[in-house]
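To fix ideas, we give here one paired sequence and structure record:
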Amino acid sequence: MNVFSFTGNLGKDCRVGTGQTAMVSFGVGVKSGWGDKAQTIWIDCTLWGKQAESRLSEFLVKGQQVAVSGELGTREHEGKTYLTCRVNTIDLVGGKREEASQEQAARQPAPRQQSSQSAPPEDEFIDDIPFADPYRGARSLLI
């Protein structure tokens, strides 16, 4: 059984192909390592069939974070070996694109002002609760 799962960001907008079967292809960059040893591994992904026919391609844009699961493979081109993935499932992991969230923020009304009264300290209410945590001041782990 060949199942490969990874999370990364799209390097550019997806490409949609039409033929006998609908196809969406995209490249995902996966970061690995840290510090001086950090590197990005690029995986060429293809999505086929009904999933490719859906509106998913509208959301597969440069920078979008995705979680992908599928069948890992390789292909050779001009003496280089490339990783490929035939996608079984894909999930949009990251939030909305920054442009979309800025547009949405412009449409939302301004936040309401808080009243001039400040909230009482948290401990003021805890003393009245009979089952309050007796260790609330000591933030240590009890084993």
